[in-house]
Amino acid sequence: MNTKQFVHLHVHSHYSIMNGCNTVPQLVDRAIKDRMKGMALTDTGNMYGIMEFFDYVSKVNAERKEKGQSPFKPIMGCELYLS
After folding, report:
1. pLDDT tens digit sequence for 3-57
2. In sequence order, what are the residues at sequence separation of 6 or more whose Cβ sits closer than 8 angstroms to the Cβ of residue 18?
């Protein structure tokens, strides 16, 4: 059966005050559990979580490589408001 792949491209972590409450590891672990191949972290008005996101995914990918699994793809972004 051919199933479609889904990847979240608009996710807020706890670094998005009043928009998200999950930590970066919780978000990544859940995306992997749901068989997503990647995820975009797009916090509101800041990029504070990007280093944590990159470091955590690097650690996860090292473990996945040892198991012969494909790497999880981190997509980094930011939700900005311009006026």
Report:
1. 578 999 999 999 998 889 999 999 999 999 999 999 999 999 999 999 999 999 9
2. none
* Consecutive H or E run containing 76: strand 73-79
Give, rounded to a whole angstrom, the gap between the first and last alpha carbons of the chain: 47
pLDDT per residue over 52-71, tens digit each? 999 999 999 999 999 999 99
Q: What is the pTM of this model?
A: 0.90
Residue 8: helix, strand or coil by DSSP? strand
Q: Which two tokens stand for residue 18?
A: 């009043």
Backbone angles phi, psi at 9, to 5 degrees: -110, 5
Please report the sign of the dihedral spanned by the C-alpha atoms of residue 68, residue 69, residue 71, residue 72: negative
